[in-house]
Task: structure prediction
Amino acid sequence: MLHIGASSRATHKDNMHITRSVVLVSTLLLVLLVPFCAKAEEKPHVTSEQVTRAIQELEKLAQKQIQENALPGLAIAVVFQDKSVYAKGFGVRDTSGKSSVDADTVFQLASLSKPIGSTVVAELVGEGKITWDSKLSVLDPTFAMFDPWVTREITIRDMYAHRSGLPEHAGDLLEDLGFTRAEILHRLRYQQPSSSFRSHYAYTNFGMTEGAIAAAKAYNVEWENASEQKLYRPLGMSSTSSRYSDFMARRNKALGHVLVAGKWVQKFKRDPDAQSPTGGVSSSVTTTDFLRFGMERWLRSGRSIALKSLRRVWPRHGHLCKSGARRATGHRGADECVSPRHSGSTRNDLCGYRTVWQTHSRLVSAV
Result:
């Protein structure tokens, strides 16, 4: 599984330039090598020699990206057979100071926060007090949609499946203008729908954010605390947080850069707290240690119910080549799943391995 967290998005209105998600050229890659085209009844088998060769090619690719000025810095980790077999940084985390990226450098994950946030919600669902079909009108009576009937009926699942009827990226421009999370979620009631309820897929950060906030409210806990208590702390993810202040407090962090006259410049800072469940996580590639030890402890302690809970909502999500998705020829001829009207998450088969990457709007560095 390959996650590429490079992203770019800027809005322009009159002479005002507000950048909400500058190019995360200090890219985070979490790499898991998994076998390709194995039948369900076959036992997956990848040799250590294959992994070594793949790592060599991956390192060449990373070095080439730096040499060609495609991005200032990135970090890569490879986990094979429950062992972290490779973790390394490339380039710099801040061009103004020339500080090098290493395996412990913390990156903002942008929309890769979504699968992490959905895992937190799955854990809350797994504890039994709520379900994916719990109504937001019960969990968070202060929230409302444009249509009173939708307000009464909409559920956590609807928000996580992006089928609420809200237009794509509803609320994002308010965040650009500095509105708080509470203010944005309150104003969603004034947003006329772009489609009828549960009829179309439309990617909405703040719809999903409301689903997460409502789930946490059922347990009388703030979202950031829920993420820490239910996921990060139990798995020993000490470099992971859903708070922007924690990211800024870290000395070894990669800052966002923009390309100006052919040079990468650290110009903007991105505070994603307003949509923390969907874009506010920061972490390092050494967090792959949780894949080796934490997940095993998590599952043995009975947390597998949370993963089963995730499977109940993921098949209905447009990103996973289910309803509404299409097959397409992807980068370099790879066969890939493409969700309609969104470049977000992609699954494809590349170089003999199953890969998954997610971007937010634009892929800066691609395989």
User: Anything to note?
Assistant: Residues 289-313 form the longest helix (25 residues). The chain has two domains: 2-111+241-303+328-358, 130-217. The chain is about 30% helix and 20% strand. The two ends are 12 Å apart (CA to CA).
